[in-house]
Design brief:
mainly beta, Beta-galactosidase, Chain A, domain 5, seven-stranded antiparallel β-sheet, 4% helix
Length: 249
């Protein structure tokens, strides 16, 4: 169910599974491209972690910058493949890479969000979720990190922002996996007599200055973005994400 509202710079979407049996994993995969890189900000996370293996382990075919496997509670200092650390809040165009990382939401009581201030485009991409429904955010940094067709080193400045309730792959998501061992839900239970739904919001708006917000709150039909000492408000359906309401397992 896709909804647009007059004056709102957002696409509101809801997915509904009616009936069924067993369990199902879910994730959204909005992607954005940048000409000059950008800066990222996030709602509070418990930690970020990479998988056991990189997407492109063969240096003949591609390259990566993050360490695999690795973990950090500091998104500004994530272990790098060559030693030292990298800042996950920076998307640099000169970093040729193919990297995939999972961010686990903290228990902060508000909406989960990812904000991307795109430098050349002078805008802000904002993606929001209910953390109780979608407890993880997977980031795919794809910036010329694959040398073989069809990418051929030309897939530049792309970031996937994938909010989900999943591990990598359906079988892993409904079985045992590392996220479930951390207490993170990776699938919805289905029932022949019930429906399961979850919601997600994607938006974009002009932005000057190139810095994403440090805080995002929603109330009374508005969303409030705080950057430094300045605050900006735009129309937002503050009841849409159902923060604080019970969520099916």
């Amino acid at each position: 169910i896709l909804t647009l509202r007059d004056g709102h710079p957002f696409l509101y979407q809801e997915h509904v599974f009616s009936g069924g049996h067993g369990a199902i994993s879910v994730a959204h995969h909005p992607m954005t491209a940048m000409m000059g890189g950008g800066r990222l900000a996030f709602s509070q996370k418990r930690f970020a972690a990479t998988l056991d293996d990189p997407l492109e382990p063969d240096p003949v075919r591609g390259r990566f910058l993050l360490a695999y496997p690795a973990r950090s509670a500091d998104l500004g200092r994530f272990p790098a493949a060559g030693g030292g650390t990298l800042d996950l809040t920076e998307y640099r165009m000169d970093d040729r890479r193919e990297d995939f990382i999972t961010l686990v939401e903290a228990d902060h009581g508000g909406p989960g969000w990812t904000a991307l201030a795109r430098q050349a485009e002078d805008d802000l991409v904002l993606v929001l979720k209910n953390p109780a429904e979608l407890p993880i955010t997977m980031l795919w940094f794809s910036n010329g990190g694959r040398d073989y067709a069809p990418w051929s080193g030309r897939h530049l400045g792309v970031l996937g922002i994938e909010d989900g309730r999943a591990a990598v792959g359906h079988a892993a998501s409904i079985g045992g996996n590392w996220l479930r061992r951390e207490g993170v839900a990776t699938a919805f239970a289905l029932d022949e007599s019930q429906s399961v739904s979850f919601r997600h919001v994607i938006g974009a708006m002009p932005l000057s200055g190139g810095e994403p917000p440090q805080a995002v709150t929603t109330a009374d039909g508005r969303i409030r973005l705080v950057t430094g000492g300045a605050a900006r408000e735009v129309p937002f359906d503050s009841d849409f994400l159902r923060i604080g309401q019970p969520v099916a397992a």
